[in-house]
Structures are given as structure tokens and as C-alpha cells.
Amino acid sequence: MTAPSVPSGKSVPSEKGAEVGRRIGVGLMYGLFRPRVLGAWKVPATGPVIFAVNHSHNIDGPMVMGVAPRPTHFLIKKEAFIGPLDPFLLGIGQLKVDRSVADRGAITQALDVLSAGGVLGIFPEGTRGEGDFASLRAGLAYFAVRSGAAVVPVAVLGSSERQGRLIKGLPPLRSRIDVVFGDPFEAGDGSGRRTRKALDEATERIQKQLTAHLENARRLTGR
């Protein structure tokens, strides 16, 4: 299967822009909170990587962007690209995705990131929820199997804490937020198959790995 063509107006995400975003994230996240990062050394230094991040709060993406050892291009719902945030998020290499359709442009951009050896950030649960990886969509499996990229599970713990909030919608200022990077793994079975059955099997394989990582991260952090 060939990659879909990029519609006009969709450009290849800038890795330099993502690095700028990472530096902005470092300042913001460490300025507002007290991130504790575990396992960052496990992230492959080069080559295509997919961060599979649990999602319980809007701060999870910026937090991972700020503490990750490599610049990251997140797939972000188009609803977040409002007003001045639209050119800003695009400028720092983030990918706008329309979740109501099979967004061919966003799919192509994501594959471009991986084919260039970059890092793609995905919330495999599809939307903000309990952050427990209980229900995964097939998108992560598709990108992992199609690109052959290593999947690195990432657990963000403490971002949904409500007690002590001074600003509505944000975790308590200067609170500790743990970000735990797991061991990279291959989602496919090595056959290169991209059939529906292969993707379903890959999704099941991914879910087991992510759930195990989250349980281990909770043990490590006491969360």
C-alpha cells in the first residue's frame, strides 16, 4: 500500500521547530511544576520512535515534549489549534489531526516524521480519559507496523491531581509529576504484514506492553 499524498497546505513537520518546542516545554514544565523523569536513557538516540503516552490531562503532551530527550511531533486534535495556538503549534512541529475522519494529510505527515528518523508522539487511547491504556485505537499499531519504528511506552503520573489547584485546568503549581519512559519494543510480528488481522494482533501486543509499563511505573513512583 502506498502512502497517501499530502493535500495542499500540509507541509512536512519541522524537526527544528520541534526542538524549539522542546526547549519551550523545558522552561514551562520545570518552571511551573517539579517533573521527575525516569528511564529517559531507554529512548533510542537515533532512528524512528513512537512515544505511546497515557492521557489523563491536557498537560501530558507538553510535559512529555519538555522532558523527552529528543524533539517530539505529537498528533494533536484539530480543536486545539485555535486562534494564535494554530500557527504556534504548527511552528513547533506539531501535527493537526481531524479525528472525525481518516485524515490522510495527518497520516502522511506522521509517516514522514518516522521515515525521516524522527519521534512521533501518540495518545493511543485517542482522547483524554483515565490514562490507564484500557482501550486503544488502531492508529498506533498502524504507524508502528507501517514504519517499523520502535514503540516507547510513556507513563505520565500526577498530572490529574486536583487537590491544591490554584489555576483551574492545571495541576497544582510546583507539584511533582512523574514521567516514566519504558523499554522500546517492536509492535509487529516481524512478518511485515499490514492486514487487519495483523494490526489487531499488533494492537493487542501493544496494549499488553503499555499496561505492564504503567503498572511498573506506578510501583516505581508509588503513585
Notes on the structure:
Residues 49-159 form the Phospholipid/glycerol acyltransferase domain. It comes from Streptomyces coacervatus. The structure is a single chain. The longest helix has 26 residues, at 196-221. This protein has helices at 15-32, 60-67, 85-91, 104-115, 139-147, 196-221, and strands at 34-38, 49-53, 72-77, 95-97, 119-122, 150-157, 176-181. It is globular, with a radius of gyration of 17 Å. It contains six helices and seven strands; from the N terminus they run αββαβαβαβαββα. α1 (15-32) packs across α2 and α5 packs across α6 (196-221). Helix content is 36%, strand content 17%.
Write a brief caption for the model.
With about 220 residues, the protein is an alpha/beta fold. It has one domain (about 15-220): Glycerol-3-phosphate (1)-acyltransferase (3-Layer(aba) Sandwich). About 35% of the residues lie in helices and about 15% in strands.
